[in-house]
Model the fold of this input.
Amino acid sequence: MAGADFWDERYEGAAFAYGEAPNAFLASLADRFTAGGRALVPGDGEGRNGVFLAQCGLRVETLDLSAQGVAKARRLAAARGVTLQALQADVLALDWPVATYDVIALLYLHLPVDGRHALHARALAALKVGGLIVLEAFTPRQIDRQRQGVRGGPRDAALLYEPRDLRADFGEAEIELCEEVETDLREGTLHVGESAVVRLIARRE
Done:
């Protein structure tokens, strides 16, 4: 798992590594988000997804390991005229609140197995009853896509997610969607091409 120095280097400069537009799956769910609700986006990088949720009228907190990413997230929010609470933090060391958020977006937040289990349990507990987890991540099939020139995702299969593992992680929630799909990613210069991803929507009961 890459550390803060890796991500700081990736987010240096004026360009946005993954673009300024939100993740397409998250954006497709805009009508599910209620203005005035609270949202959390761990691992939000340069802030594109947190800013989108703020534009939907939510009160948004974003977290990232990279100081460079957090600074750019704040600048992007200011440029878009929205308020964003962006903090530099390690999501695995965070003291997560309980029953606090209406939406938690976990987008390409790839962790080792133990870290994944822990984070997903904390995220589910941090939702209010009826709150949503929205997740998109690469599956191990992405490694074959990388060999074909597609850009995006870890090259270590242990950091990639299978639908069955997510169903197990969120087994105490109502899983509205959990499926592997092919999607043509166009997110900046680092998520580009026909990619193998898993998408999940889970509701805290």
Summary: The mean pLDDT is 96. Residues 151 and 190 are 6 Å apart (CA to CA). The first strand starts at residue 38 and ends at 42. The radius of gyration is 16 Å.
